[in-house]
Amino acid sequence: MRTAGELASLVQGAVLGDPDIEIVGVASIKDAQTGDITFAESDKFIRDAHASGASAILVPNRHDVVALSPAIGVGAKVFITVDNPRLAFTQLLDLFAPVVQVERSIHETAVLEPGVTVGENVAIGANVVIGSNVRIGNNVTIFPLAYIGADVEIADGVVIHPNVSVLHGTLIGARTIVHSGAVLGADGFGYLQVDGHHRKVAQIGHVIIGADVEIGANVTIDRAKTGATRIGNGSKLDNMVHIGHNCQVGEDVLIVAQVALGGGVQIADNVIIAGQVGVKEQVKIGAHAVIGAQSAVLRDVPAGTFVSGSPARPHRDTMRAYASMMHGPDLQKQVASLIARIAALEAQLGQTDA
Known about the structure:
The chain is an alpha/beta fold.
């Protein structure tokens, strides 16, 4: 439990109202109850938040917000003005997040093969299997039923959730989070057709995950044929993303659910790829590019551009094409009407000629 004044200090905000009001939780405007704090970024949502059960509201630090407050009647509610309400709300989510208590020990049912080295303050849960010559840093948490293959390196502060498979030779950077069901280092999809049959091509590379990466549930990251498949520092992969062999994903990249990257795709820093995008093998996507949802990326995307559609092209062109499609039925009727009128005119001209 914190007071509104204490929370304002934490998020570097200013209090409008009673700084001693007690806050016990954080919530959305829709779900907020007495004792909760919520946030609002526009006048409309400020009014909605004021009508909610929330006791305190994070609002933008603007002169018009102060002027707006008496108009909607602050009453018992407290406003905390901040530069960025969404960021401040995120900071408070961190503060109020429940702490999962994990015993910092190696469970008696865990299996550690020869040559495993384990750092300090490590938690290894029940029925975890760790292969030979694995190196585990300090403050690592490995939840039950995870599998760690031979020669894996796990840096400090990594969290590996249940039922994760980290296959041989994978390197995971500091403070990375791997959610349940993810598979890091499965064979890349490599086959050579010989006499009408598919001959498997050995995948002898590995996977390198940078620091501060978050890998969602059921993500698959394939090992390279040779060399490494890489995910850069700070990148975030949503659930059910597939990264093909030899892909190179830069730093601070966001990839939303159900994206599939073909082999050898290169993604520069700070790219955003929305959900259900498919990227053809060997395509290059430049820094700060944005790929719209359900796009099919078949060729390189220049840095700083926004593309969408199937095939992907500049977003403005895609929107124009969709707008034209919406007018299709009306155009069809107009064309049918014109054809009928032309036919009638031709019939009249034919009678005149006769």
